[in-house]
Amino acid sequence: MSFYNAGIFLFENGAPLNPGNPYRAGLGGYTKQSPFGTFGVPFFLGLIGEAATRAFKAAWYAKWFVHRALRPDQYGGLVHMTKTNQKTYPINSYILGSPALIGPNGVFAKHGSYFLPQAYSEAGPQHPSYPSGHATMAGACATILKAAFDGSAPFAKLTDHTIQVASNDGQSLVSVPDPGITIGGELDKLASNIAFGRNFAGIHWRSDAEWGMRLGEAVALSILRDQDNNYPGEDFEGFTITKFDGTSVTV
């Protein structure tokens, strides 16, 4: 829902369309037609759902058929069994002697075990860790919205361009001056927050989020390339998108 909400918010608040959209009226685009099923609101919001579904399939293939990576909480179990001499696993000595584990404010001092603390009482899901499904979905959906909008456009161009941050006590939102953020930057931030939020909970590694986002991005770019082949009659040369690594691509 996060990316549907973001897309609806951007469309409703007049976010400039991607420069490659032939329906970008007044900027060299069509002047007597409006986008709808082709390169319009339902087109892009519909692609979000398709991209999310394909991204999850790509992630689950990588999880089960390629990597089958251990989750952080399960790795914490190996650490606990090794530290309590119940089993011996090839754990790096730096981890076994880490202050985060054995220091006065470490895990054992606080919890009486060497297991990795979790935000969820049930701990992580039972499917493999790499890549993160949430991160892959987020990378794909953000890329679809980058195709919809001009990522370089200032957030201040929106009808509602209020920028809010959490208060010092975290109990409310406070409006702040515009620091010069862009639509593309905010889409990257949304994807990153969804991806890395799972890391904060203790159920994913950083690599799960980082490369999951890029896998999702690749899935979305593939979908957009397929879409390009469906519109030979349009004055369309492709959407230009800034990828997560900062490079640009036209699809």
Helix-strand blueprint:
Layout: H1 2-12, H2 41-67, H3 72-83, H4 93-96, H5 99-102, H6 107-111, H7 133-148, E1 164-166, E2 173-175, H8 183-200, H9 206-228, E3 240-242, E4 248-250
Antiparallel strand pairs: 1-2, 3-4
Helix pairs in contact: 1-2, 2-7, 2-9, 7-8, 7-9, 8-9
Notable traits:
mainly alpha; single chain; two-stranded antiparallel sheet; 251 residues; elongated
In short:
The protein has 251 residues and is mainly alpha-helical. It contains 9 helices and 4 strands, in the order H-H-H-H-H-H-H-E-E-H-H-E-E. The chain is elongated and about 75 Å long.
Could you describe the 3D structure shown?
The structure is a single chain. The protein has 251 residues and is mostly helical. It has one domain. It is built from 9 helices and 4 strands; from the N terminus they run H-H-H-H-H-H-H-E-E-H-H-E-E. Helix 1 runs antiparallel to helix 2, helix 7 (133-148) packs antiparallel against helix 8 (183-200) and helix 8 (183-200) packs across helix 9. The mean pLDDT is 92.
**Which percent band covers the strand fraction?**
under 5%
Question: What is the structural class?
Answer: mainly alpha
Q: Mean pLDDT score, rounded?
A: 92
Strand line-up in the sheet with most strands: 1-2
Helix content: 40-55%
Separation, N- and C-terminal Cα atoms: 25 Å
Q: Helix tally?
A: 9
Q: N-to-C SSE series? A: HHHHHHHEEHHEE
